């Protein structure tokens, strides 16, 4: 299974805690590691790979593509002839939503944080109370859910009067879409950049999937179709 290769300069071993400290906590463990006398930074380094991957764990610059992480803590690379895919990076438990084709040519499952008509597809804690059952979004997803609501409000503003709210930016949308992918896949910002997943063509589609706009579109099209059937002249000449 194809995966990413990571390189940490001047290190011979690394723990899960240290991976998290460097911003690599999303890498699926137990990780595979090996030391290399030279790496992408032209220094001695520790090469790290997803524990489920089975590609060669070695530095071969000419056959790989490397970039420095945004936080300047590690290098991220991939084999150019066998890049990671949505299938190889998928988490074992997927949150329901809408499938979108991204720029790598793969279909990615975008979790639906705000369901049309109310509720969410995000993991929630269910409790029985005297008034009935309650569902509360798990704490680790609350901020994402709140940002999704903000995007929904942004969409409504565009539909209602074409107004773009001052408190929502293109960067906000990029961040929300990246967060959506991290829920269903072992990726972060650096992995998304390395695969070139986002573009001006799909960023709106990903955001729309987060707030269940495909369902809204389907319902509107069905309603329009039903209205046309009602107003279509009958064939009996009456």
End-to-end separation in angstroms reads 66 Å
Q: Mind summarizing the main beta sheet?
A: 5 strands, antiparallel
Query: What is the H/E order?
Result: EHEEEEHEEEEHHHHH
Which structural class do the helices and strands define?
A: alpha+beta
Overall mean pLDDT stands at: 90
Shape: elongated
Number of strands: 9
User: How many separate domains make up the residues?
Assistant: 2
Strand order of the largest sheet: 2-3-1-5-4
Oligomer description: single chain
* Number of DSSP helical runs: 7
* Relative helix content: 25-40%
Note the topology:
Blueprint: E1 5-9, H1 16-21, E2 32-36, E3 45-49, E4 64-68, E5 75-79, H2 86-89, E6 97-101, E7 107-111, E8 124-129, E9 132-137, H3 142-161, H4 170-184, H5 189-195, H6 203-210, H7 213-231
Antiparallel strand pairs: 1-3, 1-5, 2-3, 4-5, 6-7, 8-9
Helix pairs in contact: 3-4, 4-6
Short structural description:
The chain has 238 residues and is an alpha+beta fold. 33% of the residues lie in helices and 20% in strands.
Would you mind describing this structure in some detail?
- By secondary structure, this protein is of the alpha+beta class.
- It folds into 2 domains: 5-84; 91-217, no CATH class.
- 33% of the residues lie in helices and 20% in strands.
- A hairpin with a 5-residue loop joins strand 6 (97-101) and strand 7 (107-111).
- The longest helix is centred in the middle third of the chain and has 20 residues, at 142-161.
- The chain is elongated.
């Amino acid at each position: 299974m194809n995966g990413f290769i990571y390189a940490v300069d001047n290190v011979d071993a690394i723990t899960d805690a240290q991976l998290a400290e460097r911003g690599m906590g999303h890498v699926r463990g137990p990780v595979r590691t090996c030391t290399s006398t030279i790496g992408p930074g032209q220094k001695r380094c520790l090469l790290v790979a997803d524990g489920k991957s089975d590609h060669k764990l070695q530095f071969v610059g000419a056959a790989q593509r490397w970039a420095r992480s945004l936080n300047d803590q590690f290098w991220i690379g991939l084999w150019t002839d066998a890049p990671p895919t949505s299938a190889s990076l998928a988490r074992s438990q997927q949150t329901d939503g809408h499938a979108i084709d991204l720029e790598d040519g793969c279909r990615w499952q975008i979790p639906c944080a705000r369901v049309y008509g109310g509720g969410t597809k995000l993991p929630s804690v269910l409790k029985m109370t005297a008034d009935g059952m309650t569902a509360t979004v798990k704490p680790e997803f609350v901020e994402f859910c709140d940002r999704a609501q903000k995007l929904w409000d942004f969409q409504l503003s565009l539909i209602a009067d074409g107004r773009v709210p001052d408190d929502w930016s293109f960067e906000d949308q990029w961040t929300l879409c990246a967060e959506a992918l991290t829920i269903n896949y072992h990726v972060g910002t650096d992995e998304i950049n390395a695969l070139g997943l986002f573009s001006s063509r799909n960023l709106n589609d990903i955001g729309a999937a987060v707030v269940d706009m495909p369902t809204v579109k389907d319902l509107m099209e069905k309603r329009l179709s039903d209205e046309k059937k009602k107003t279509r002249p009958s064939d009996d000449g009456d």
